[in-house]
Amino acid sequence: MSRPERYAEPSGANRPLIAMMRRDLLLMMRSPGAWLNPLAFFALVITLFPVGISPAASVLSTLAPGLLWVAALLATLLSLEGMFRDDAEDGSLEQLLLAPQPLPLLVLARVAVHWVSTGLPLALMAPVLGIMLALPSGSYPMLMASLALGSAALSLIGAIGAALTIGVARGGILLSLLVLPLYVPVLIFGSGAVQAAIGGTPVAPHLALLGALLALALALAPWATAAALRISLNA
User: Fold this and answer.
1) Is 8 domain-assigned?
2) pTM of this prediction?
């Protein structure tokens, strides 16, 4: 009898990327607070806005695109500080720098897991919170699409700041100062896409600009993050 066939192993250059993502996903499942806290923060902020501003649907629907995007941005920022800090504390980050695989590839795997655990759940959760802000139902698909694209760019940009502040005590404030100015274009085009969907104007330009920002971040951020990690660990 022939031996049972094993599942297909990832081959070639994909193997380090898949192994890194598998490891990070397992660690994420063992510490659910790391991905539940941003979601709880997102929900809490959106819940408090109608209480603090006005429960009138006309007011909330006007402010909803900006409120949802600002809350999602802050929730993403909340989860950035721990992106590399745990690995730096237990010494595994030094092993990644010494690995034969390209460091930008491993950084990209870490950012992908961060997006899956933070950005994607925020995009899926946003329509539920949009109901609380009287957001028109026709804009929900655009809200999810813009948040999915934009949050990926936020994770890539935020990884650079997270890498630069690894060795800084209480580096959360410094991290915010570094990445918030770079987040502004994503915030503008992301909320603009939702507002365009509400107003019935073309949304393709906004999505195209979000896609261009994501492509630029994909091309530059892994290399910049890898350089920042080397600088932080050699400082």
Assistant:
1) no
2) 0.87
